[in-house]
Write a structure and sequence with these properties.
The protein is mostly beta strands. The chain contains one helix and seven strands; from the N terminus they run E-E-E-E-E-H-E-E. It has a four-stranded antiparallel beta sheet with strand order 4-5-6-7. Strands 1-2-3 form a three-stranded antiparallel beta sheet, with no helix packed on it.
Length: 99
C-alpha cells in the first residue's frame, strides 16, 4: 500500500495478510506536494507510480504525473512526467485534454 504525505513524500508498506502485521513504512520518494499515489504495472512488465499534487504545498492541483519505479515498487528512477493537466483546454469530446 502506498501512502502520500504532502510534507514528506511517498511511503510504502507491505504485508502478505491485510488483517495481519504490516512492514514498517519505507520512504520511496522524499518530496513535497505529492499526494494520492497509485502504482501501475504495465503489460510489458514496467512499473510506474502515478500521483497528484497538493495545491496547499506546491501552488497547483488537477495535475497527474507518472514516474518509472523499480519492479518491487520501492524506488523512483526518473523525474515526473505530466500525463494529465486539468487546467488545459478541453478536448473535442468535451473531456479534459490528456497529454
Amino acid at each position: 500500500m502506498y501512502y502520500g504525505d504532502p510534507d514528506f513524500g511517498i511511503y510504502i508498506s507491505k504485508t502478505k495478510n491485510p488483517a495481519g502485521l504490516w512492514e514498517p513504512l519505507l520512504l520511496v520518494k522524499q518530496t513535497i506536494g505529492w499526494i494520492d499515489p497509485c502504482p501501475l504495472w504495465d503489460d510489458d512488465g514496467s512499473t510506474y507510480l502515478v500521483h497528484a499534487w497538493a495545491k496547499s504545498r506546491v501552488g497547483f492541483n488537477s495535475v497527474l504525473t507518472v514516474n518509472r519505479m523499480s519492479a518491487d515498487g520501492t524506488q523512483i528512477f526518473d523525474d515526473s512526467l505530466t500525463v494529465f493537466d486539468g487546467h488545459k483546454k478541453p478536448s473535442n469530446d468535451g473531456g479534459p485534454e490528456v497529454l
